[in-house]
Design a protein that fits this description.
The complex is a heterotrimer. By secondary structure, chain B is an alpha/beta fold. Chain B is about 30% helix and about 20% strand. In chain B, the strands form 10 sheets. Chain B has a 7-stranded mixed sheet with strand order 15-14-27-26-25-16-17, with helices on both faces. Chain B has a 6-stranded mixed beta barrel with strand order 30-34-31-33-32-37. The longest helix of chain C has 15 residues. The radius of gyration of chain C is 26 Å and the shape is elongated. Chain C starts with a helix and ends with a helix. The chains are: A alpha/beta, B alpha/beta, C alpha+beta.
């Protein structure tokens, strides 16, 4: 095994009180805070910039750079908004993190707000996870009681309020500007950019929107420094990352490893493929990125290597599928999700996803027209790059990727239903892979 | 009147930064911030679009206008990307990427669009239809089931929605939110189920709702009035000017076979931009057809009988024969400038009287002096553009949303885009003021003059808001707008003029009716001759006599009476004859007195379009053309002449001016033919010469106060109410605001008011629901002429009068 | 002498013709013997759905297509009180001016609902201009068995689409009962005051 796991955020998840302030403090929690408060805010930004930390929400935008876009001394309030609206199919890293180590996030928020001179921070948590919301809210409450949040934090003169906000469960609200609209009490729909949130975000004021995992990295970076952080990962993708491996592996779960680990290693860590099954295809970062096959198992999981392979690292939440799975059915299910979650603002996504889903369902049912494959492909091209936000692009991703490797299965959908071709029970946990 | 067109005031555009770009290889320089779609229009390239509208904020939702920008891998929406230096844009004409993107979006737009063009009102003038022909496939590739909704559903009594046709461009919701400030419609649901809707208990009762039908790029929004009535290719469109208020909106009147089928806002950037109000759009039934076929002459049996024009004119001549100097002329505020001039001339030169007044509404001598000195002959004064760019606008006795909706839209636009400070001197903060983000300077009725004087003194007595506004008023370009009801507040107009003088702010008078400013220009006030000249001034008399082609000696020299005095004099038998044009006695302060006067006068000529309270008593009724049958000119509140042509060119109905010319001929005191062209020449000849300006009034402000159990009435009209010109459209009336009485909490408590209040005077009483409002104590507000709230007709009082309050039993 | 034989020859030609096949059609005596060709363009007809509702939706496309400007249509709203066609819209006014009509049939091609077709009736001469402007009542197809004279409701449970797809085959008992009820309105009593149906809905 070349690449060892690097439990940092996840180091103490198995402590019974990992989610409490005591549990967090026992392992050096909140030590980074005084250190950061003693620094100049710009120095904190500079430090984060130097680490090369890239956003963990999917796009991989350099975090320090994003912070430095916030105009200073503009007289407007600044805001930090933490995007905890994790709703990508297959992604399950932010919620466990919120459940098991919420104080890393809270401490990260305090340091980030100090750096970007924000006096208010919002944690926008997806509405369907009340248990996670309770954990975060409790953590914030504890931090208030401990004096980490509030007025004049530890005598530094720095004031901060943190609000935990529950969304209503729309996928689009994970898009940063739609999230801001939702937070302001409007319908969650993406905003026209420019202006970018860093200039006019929440309540038309400079706002930084960061993913939970990104912010949770901050205390560890402050505590251990740039060099420590850069020892993990690669030059362009430094650091460690939560990989939530799901699907037909023996032990699906969250594995924290340096960027650059290969999928083969991750599958091994996850106990290998389940009994008697062999890998058919996998996606590196949720349903919004093109799928890969066994030939790609040895690629390093970095932003740049994945892009080279024609896909994206995304949220780094690999889904693994074995031979019992119908590609047609999988893609159809994903598209049904995108159709359901399309916000309706722009035409390509609104109309394209519903049309594509309608056509894919005919293939899943075994009465597709082969000529419709061309239409679906056209639809994907008519959505990609033309929709208002990245959700449209995401919806246009699965089909062309699937067609690249599994065109035959779609052609089979002209006469055989997906359920006939692939016994649906066989891919579930109810059946050993050997049943087929 | 060309006379009132002055040199355009100091409106040289400020220098703008230009950026050089190329569109389809054509180099051009456009102002910084210009969207690509606008730049392309300049070289005649129309990028297809749905959500884009030049007056709405860009949203880039429909994605129809995607174009290629060199150096960018993805096509970009032309409506939302501003031109930047050196940008090279390729539209669908030169870029395959743009062409393909547009075709793709068009295909998407059509997959769920129902194929009901044959029964859709938009068919034939539909942007979706047109652009589908240009950028769509000839055959659909979509053979799944289309999306279905129940259709149509009512958003309000007059706006219907067909959700299947909607392309979710959000023009309607954005208009309502951004322009009108009535966010009563919103998009609901998501994905392909997204639809426009209203809250369950709040219909789309916006004064501007009709605009959404006009901006809808598909047939999703239709009006109950025009629904299925016609096809675009049936219609003959005529540019017209709205006859309702003094905003001066340009309209497009669509006609088929001698019937007006609909009216739309005409793109008039300097006035109404591309909008108008629902009254202007939907209330045109009044002009459908004249309700008189022939002149009517009262017979010996006391009944009006149809008569020929020669018979009727002969009878008029008989009746007016001995009326020279013993007659009066009441014209009302709805005449065109041409007709107003004709009445002005007829009264002075033919009847030899100066007892002429257009103000068929509460008025005062102070107002007449104000109009004669400040307004008459002042030409194009404050303009819409100046309003938009002013440092502050003070509204005195004016609620623009109710009284001049386009002024409201302009003020809201400026308040929204550049935080124009607006202050209102009124009893309470109306919804309109809220939508203009304005400040209320709370003022009880009658105290308006005092409030204006206080602003002149620095606003200290009006609190911090007052001080702020008073300071802003000293900045160049500040504007004071005064409304019609200041006529009833003693000293208020004097104070407004004084405030303008002290601060250097510009002053404009915004009347409610389209013809009032024109009537002032035409001299339809006692002592006032056309062009702001004074009757008392010899040179003015000479100029006017020359223009009219009469001897100076034919003109009266004695300054005449105002409406109230005319009414008194008529009842006292001072007149042998009265000539009345479009006057409704119930618009006046004391309707009973007016009716008594009409009854008392020996000979009454009514020149009218439709039967009215005046024709009931008239000895002769001379029918004139409706607004659609005549050409003319309205002078809007700015002083801008708004010329319009005849909608029905084949109409033989006569204008007032022609009828007066015929009467003059019959009386052997000919005044010429008085056709529209002739009257316009006359208007030019009467251009203001600056001679004989009257003194600006300086009446001391006084205030009224109510004793216990009483309250001072504050009242103004709702835009949609029981006005004569709004008759005949029930769906429009259904969107009117409900009449309520507003009192302060303390007043309500003192009078023991709970749900309903009974307001009473000697003349009668009104029962209205009570709404407790933040307003001065001892004041009650109610709409002037709404359903169940006819202040003048029932109570016989007006703004500033005292009424008794008692807890009411409910209606 | 030379002239006479020529005359005789002429009569001879005439005489011979008497035994040749005659092309003249005896009109109007024998018009039934010579019906127009199947695709003859005769007088127009406004067709009905099998339950009697009109097919015309008042879209005016016929009027738009007409090169002679012979057609005049005004649409109107169907509503719950008076329904003349399936769907939202019907033709309230329908006129064809046969002084202008050139029987080109472009209106037929334009009609989206197959409401307008042409019959074989060509006997349109009359002695007054106004008589040659045919109104909707003159153009509507006759009521066939199974049809119910509009206005009446659509067949229960159907949409306009069902009508266009031809699944409505004739007036249902419910429609007939409805129409009868409308023809003989039962008085509606509201708080002791008696209204007729028509008054209530006004």
């Amino acid at each position: 095994m070349a690449t060892p796991l690097t439990p940092i955020l996840t180091a103490h998840w198995d402590d019974p009180d990992s989610f409490t302030i005591d549990g967090y403090s026992r392992h050096g929690g909140y030590d980074a805070l005084p250190k950061a408060l003693a620094m100049e805010p710009d120095a904190v930004i500079g430090l984060v910039k130097d680490t090369g930390l890239r956003g963990r929400g999917g796009a991989g935008f350099p975090t320090g750079l994003k912070w430095s876009f916030v105009p200073q001394n503009d007289g407007k309030p600044h805001y930090l908004v933490v995007n905890a609206d994790e709703s990508e199919p297959g992604a399950c890293k932010d919620m466990p993190l919120l459940m098991a180590n919420p104080h890393a996030l809270v401490e990260g928020i305090i340091i980030t707000c100090y750096a970007i001179r924000a006096r208010h921070a919002f944690i926008y948590v997806r509405g369907e996870v009340p248990h996670a919301i309770r954990r975060v809210a409790a953590a914030v409450r504890e931090a208030y009681q401990a004096g980490h949040i509030g007025t004049n934090i530890h005598g530094s003169g720095f004031d901060l309020d943190v609000v935990v906000h529950s969304g209503a469960g729309a996928y689009i609200c994970g898009e940063e500007t739609a999230l801001l609209d939702s937070l302001e009490g409007r319908r969650g729909q993406p905003r026209l950019k420019p202006p970018f949130p860093a200039v006019a975000g929440l309540y038309a004021s400079p706002t930084v929107v960061n993913n939970v995992e990104t912010i949770s990295n901050i205390p560890y970076i402050i505590r251990n420094g740039v060099d420590w952080f850069r020892q993990f990962g690669t030059e362009k993708s430094p650091g460690f990352k939560l990989f939530s491996v799901s699907g037909h592996v023996r032990s699906p779960g969250v594995y924290e490893a340096p960027l650059g680990i290969t999928m083969r290693e991750l599958i091994d860590y996850a106990g290998g493929m389940r009994e008697g099954s062999e890998l058919k295809f996998w996606v590196p970062g949720g349903s919004s990125v093109p799928m890969l096959t066994a030939e790609h198992l040895d690629l390093p999981m970095t932003y740049e290597a994945m892009a080279e392979a024609g896909t994206m690292l995304g949220t780094a939440t690999p889904m693994v599928f074995d031979q019992t799975v119908s590609v047609v059915k999988t893609v159809t299910r994903w598209l049904e999700f995108y159709k359901h979650e399309s916000c309706g603002k722009c035409t390509p996504c609104r109309e394209g996803t519903s049309w594509m889903t309608g056509l894919l369902e005919t293939f899943e049912a075994g009465h597709g027209q082969e000529s419709d494959l061309q239409i679906i492909d056209d639809i994907c091209h008519q959505i990609a790059g033309r929709s208002f936000c990245a959700l449209g692009d995401a919806a246009a991703t699965p089909f062309p990727g699937a067609m690249k490797y599994f065109r035959d299965e779609f052609v089979a959908g002209t006469h055989t239903s997906a359920d006939d071709a692939f016994n649906p029970v066989a891919s579930t946990v109810l059946a050993g892979a050997s049943t087929r | 009147m060309t006379a009132t067109i002055p040199v355009p005031a100091d409106s040289s555009p400020p220098p703008v930064d230009g950026v050089s770009i190329t569109v389809d290889g054509v180099p051009m320089t456009v102002p910084k911030g210009t969207m690509i779609i606008r730049a392309a229009e300049q070289i005649g390239v129309e990028v297809p679009r749905f959500c884009d509208h030049p007056l709405l904020d860009p949203v880039a939702a429909c994605r129809m206008c995607l174009v290629e920008i060199e150096g960018q891998g993805k096509p970009q929406p032309a409506c939302a990307v501003a031109a930047s230096e050196g940008m090279s844009v390729k539209t669908q004409r030169t870029s395959e990427m743009a062409e393909l993107a547009q075709r793709g979006v068009m295909e998407f737009l059509l997959i769920n669009h129902p194929l009901d063009c044959p029964v859709c009102d938009k068919g034939g003038e539909c942007p979706l239809q047109n652009q589908a022909m240009e950028h769509g496939r000839s055959e659909s590739r979509f053979d799944l089931e289309k999306r279905h909704f129940d259709k149509p559903i009512n958003l309000s009594a007059q706006i219907l929605l067909d959700r299947e046709r909607c392309v979710s461009c959000a023009r309607c919701t954005r208009f309502s939110e951004q322009i009108a400030g009535d966010p009563l419609i919103e998009l609901f649901e998501r994905g392909s189920k997204q639809q426009v809707g209203i809250a369950e208990d709040r219909p789309f009762d916006s004064y501007f709702s009709g605009n959404t039908v006009q901006v809808c790029p598909v047939g999703a929004l239709t009006s109950s009035q025009y629904r299925f009535r016609s096809r675009p290719f049936d219609l003959v469109s005529v540019p017209t000017v709205c006859e309702h208020c003094s905003s001066g909106c340009g309209l497009r009147t669509d006609v088929r076979r001698s019937t007006v089928l609909r009216r739309l806002a005409w793109d008039t950037p300097e006035v109404n931009e591309e909008w108008n109000c629902d009254k202007g759009r939907f209330a045109f039934a009044h002009a459908a057809t004249p309700e008189f076929d022939t002149p009517l002459v009262r017979g010996d049996d006391g009944i009006l009988h149809a008569a020929t024009w020669p018979e009727a004119l002969e009878r008029v001549a008989e009746g007016l024969a001995d009326a020279r100097g013993r007659s009066a002329v009441l014209t009302g505020g709805r005449l065109t400038l041409e007709d107003s001039l004709a009445y002005s001339k007829f009264a002075r030169a033919v009847l030899g009287t100066d007892d002429v007044d257009f103000r068929a509404r509460p008025h005062s001598t102070e107002e007449a002096d104000f109009l004669a000195s400040v307004v008459a002959g002042s030409g194009l004064g404050v303009t819409y553009d100046q309003l938009e760019n002013a440092p502050v606008v003070v509204l005195a006795g004016l609620d623009p949303e109710e009284e001049s909706p386009i002024v409201f839209l302009r003020l809201r636009k400026a308040a929204r885009k550049r935080q124009l400070p607006i202050a209102s001197i009124a009893a309470w903060a109306t919804p309109g003021l809220g939508k203009m983000f304005g400040t209320l300077l709370p003022t009880a009725p009658g105290a308006e003059g005092e409030a204006l004087s206080a602003l002149a003194r620095g606003g200290d007595t009006l609190g911090s808001d007052g001080r702020r506004i008073a300071a802003l008023l000293n900045e160049p370009g500040a504007v004071i707008l005064v409304g019609e009801r200041l006529a009833t507040c003693t000293g208020a107009l004097s104070a407004a003029a004084a405030l303008a003088h002290t601060t250097g702010a510009r002053l404009a008078w915004i009347p409610r009716r389209a013809g009032e400013r024109g009537a002032v220009e035409a001299g339809l006030l006692p002592g006032l001759l056309p062009g702001g000249r004074s009757l008392a001034d010899a040179q003015s008399r000479a100029e006017v006599a020359a223009a009219w082609g009469v001897s100076v000696d034919d003109l009266p020299t004695k300054v005449g009476r105002e409406v109230d005095a005319i009414v008194e004099a008529a009842r006292a038998g001072a007149y042998n004859a009265l000539v009345v044009a479009g006057v409704d006695p119930f618009d006046t302060r004391r309707p009973d007195d007016v009716i008594a006067a009409l009854e008392a006068v020996p000979f009454l000529v009514s020149i009218e379009v439709r039967p009215s309270a005046v024709t009931e008593f008239a000895d002769v009724v001379l029918p004139v053309s409706t607004i659609t049958q005549r050409a003319g000119t309205f002078v809007d509140w700015e002083g801008r002449t708004r010329v319009f042509g005849q909608v029905f060119r084949t109409s033989l109905a006569l204008t007032d001016a022609r009828v007066l010319a015929m009467i003059a001929d019959e009386l052997d005191r000919p005044v010429g033919r008085q056709d529209v062209a002739g009257m316009r020449k006359e208007a030019a000849a009467l251009a203001p010469s600056g001679s004989g300006r009257r003194e600006v009034p300086s009446v001391a402000a006084s205030s009224v106060s109510a004793s216990s159990g009483q309250a001072v009435v504050s009242t103004w009209h709702h835009l949609l109410d029981e006005g004569t010109l709004q008759r005949g459209d029930d769906d429009l009336a259904a969107t009117a605001r409900t009449a309520v009485a507003r009192v302060s909490a303390a007043t309500a408590r003192a009078a023991g008011l709970t749900d309903f209040v009974t307001l009473s005077t000697d003349a009668g009483s009104l029962d209205l629901p009570v709404v407790v409002t933040d307003m001065p104590d001892g004041v009650v507000w109610l709409p002037t002429n709404s359903h169940n709230s006819n202040v003048r007709r029932v109570l016989g009082v007006d703004h500033g009068a005292i009424v008794s309050l008692a807890s009411g039993g409910g209606a | 002498m030379g002239e006479l034989p020529q005359v005789v020859r002429g009569f001879g030609t005439t005489f011979v013709t008497m035994f040749k096949h005659v092309n003249t059609e005896q009109y109007p005596e024998a018009k039934d013997k010579f019906p127009p060709k199947p695709r003859f363009h005769g007088r127009h007809q406004l067709n009905r759905h099998p339950d009697g509702l009109e097919k015309c939706v008042g879209c005016e496309l016929c009027a738009w297509a007409c090169p002679a400007d012979a057609i005049y249509v005004e649409g109107a709203d169907n509503n719950d009180i008076a329904r003349f066609s399936p769907g939202e819209r019907y033709g309230r006014v329908y006129q064809i001016n046969y002084l202008r009509c050139i029987f080109c049939g472009l209106c037929i091609e334009a009609c989206p609902t197959r409401a307008l077709t042409m019959t074989h009736d060509f006997e349109l001469a009359d002695n007054g201009r106004e008589k040659l402007i045919f109104e909707k009542a003159d153009l509507l197809a006759p009521m066939l068995p199974g049809m119910l004279k509009p206005p009446h409701a659509m067949a229960p449970g159907t949409t306009a689409k069902d009508y266009y797809e031809g699944t409505v085959r004739g007036a249902t008992p419910e429609q007939i009962a409805d129409a009868e009820a409308q023809a003989n309105p039962e008085p509606v009593v509201i708080e002791g005051v008696v209204f007729l149906d028509s008054e209530v809905t006004q």
